[in-house]
Automatic annotation (TrEMBL):
Membership in a protein family: Belongs to the DapA family.
Primary enzyme class: lyase
SMART domains: DHDPS (SM01130)
Keyword Lyase (UniProt): yes
EC number, UniProt record: 4.2.1.41
Protein's name in the database: Probable 5-dehydro-4-deoxyglucarate dehydratase
Gene Ontology BP, a term: D-glucarate catabolic process
Pathway where it operates: Carbohydrate acid metabolism; D-glucarate degradation; 2,5-dioxopentanoate from D-glucarate: step 2/2
Keyword match Lyase: yes
GO MF annotation terms: 4-hydroxy-tetrahydrodipicolinate synthase activity; 5-dehydro-4-deoxyglucarate dehydratase activity
Reactions catalysed, as given in the entry: 5-dehydro-4-deoxy-D-glucarate + H(+) = 2,5-dioxopentanoate + CO2 + H2O
Length: 313
């Protein structure tokens, strides 16, 4: 088990950052045995970290008890080989509760998702995340998306907050992100981590790399780890020919398919895991399953992605 700080373990990942789906049985209850297998397969395939019960893991659909059971299962299955980062969200009081549940379950850190529903000003957002950081010993990565979009000045304040080690962007606003990176670099000494957190982040990896952001989350790793690993290796080594071949032949068509349905950033990924032979169940409402035609297209895309890997040999 590594005793290195979370920031050090995430800063130069040996493989993709893995966001496992949450497994349900036929009755819709949590299936911890299948979930454990999903996590175990991901770690054995080369994941550098496990982000449990986050967006792809349907954090929004889990009870606090289910959340803690899944985080604990992820911690036990990784056995210290890679860090486990758990989701935390909703209003401040509930975010603190989830943080403490994750801490009790043995997590190494938190991905702090946007507060529920409200569109808050910068002062309120800063207070929310600083109160969360002050209530837990876990290191925190703040997730920018939807109703939690930050000015560079607010991110500077977050970077100065003890326990906040990084910032994940899910907006795709590169102008804003360049200004954030510049402001933090100019005003806060030391390392601060940035992550590309867009759905199917590989598609925008080259653009984010242009402003110095190379860390990213990989939903594809859930169902096609071979493809995700090949992309990660090529991206990290500067093999842009391979990167572009996978972008053109696999990732761009996947993103276009994902755009065909609301919630497909989760339900299409979960369907992909089932297609690869692990029955993780369906998504919980209000998400819905992909259509039969879209499932066929996904299966064809996975096959095409593997063919691209064979062509490169």
């Amino acid at each position: 088990m590594s005793s290195a700080p979370l920031a050090a373990r995430l800063s130069i990942p040996s493989g993709p950052l893995f966001f496992p789906v949450t497994a349900y049985d036929r009755d819709g209850a949590i299936d911890l045995d299948v979930y454990r297998e999903h996590v175990r397969r991901g770690v054995e395939a080369g994941a550098a970290a496990v982000f449990a019960c986050c967006g792809t893991g349907e954090f929004h659909a889990l009870t606090p008890e289910e959340f803690q059971d899944c985080v604990r299962a992820a911690v036990e299955e990784t056995a210290g080989r890679v860090p486990v980062v758990a989701g935390a969200g909703y209003g401040t009081a509930l975010a603190v509760r989830y943080a403490r549940l994750a801490e009790e379950a043995g997590a190494d850190g938190l991905l702090a998702m946007p507060p529920y529903l409200v569109v808050a000003g910068q002062e309120g957002l800063l207070r929310h995340y600083t109160e969360l950081a002050g209530a837990t010993s876990l290191d925190i990565v703040v997730y920018q998306r939807d109703n939690a979009v930050f000015t560079p000045e607010t991110v500077v304040a977050l970077a100065r907050t003890e326990g906040v080690i990084g910032f994940k962007d899910g907006t795709g606003d590169l102008d804003l992100m360049q200004r954030i990176v510049s402001a933090v670099r100019s005003e806060v000494p030391g390392e601060f981590l940035y992550f590309n957190g867009l759905p199917t982040a590989e598609l925008t990896g080259l653009a984010y790399r242009g402003i110095g952001i190379t860390l990213y989350s990989s939903a594809v790793f859930c169902f096609a780890p071979e493809i995700a690993l090949a992309f990660h290796r090529a991206f990290g080594s500067g093999d842009d020919d391979t990167v572009n071949r996978l972008l053109d032949g696999f990732y761009r068509p996947l993103v276009e398919l994902r755009a065909q349905g609301r919630g497909y950033a989760v339900s299409l990924v979960k369907a992909g895991v089932r297609l690869r032979g692990l029955d993780v169940g369906e998504v919980r409402p209000p998400l819905h399953e992909p259509s039969e035609d879209h499932l066929k297209q996904l299966a064809q895309l996975i096959e095409r992605g593997h063919a691209l890997l064979e062509e490169a040999k």
